[in-house]
Design brief:
Layout (H helix, E strand, L loop, with lengths): L1 H12 L7 E7 L4 E8 L4 H5 L4 H11 L2 H4 L2 E8 L3
Parallel strand pairs: 2-3
Antiparallel strand pairs: 1-2
């Protein structure tokens, strides 16, 4: 659910939406879901935003999901090598 939202939202703000992918990694022991966002290297600045404001807004929004399912989310942006 959260992965689908992130992929759809990030695809709307980048120049190359076909290169966006979100890969979740779940750590059941710590109840943490690591969300790795892969985008074209030219779009990394768009996803991070000026002074990190865009990624901070995404993290704030996704942290609201913790109240629903108790899972903690950590978001990281990586360049897509494809």
């Amino acid at each position: 659910m959260v992965e689908n939202f992130l992929k759809a939202y990030v695809s709307k703000i980048v120049t190359f939406p076909n290169k966006v992918s979100v890969q979740p990694r779940i750590s059941h022991e710590e109840n943490i879901c690591f969300l790795d966002i892969f985008v074209c290297i030219d779009d990394m600045g768009r996803v991070i935003g000026k002074d990190g404001r865009m990624i901070a807004a995404l993290k704030t929004f996704v942290s609201g999901c913790k109240a629903k399912n108790g899972m903690t989310y950590k978001i990281t942006v990586y360049p897509n090598e494809q």
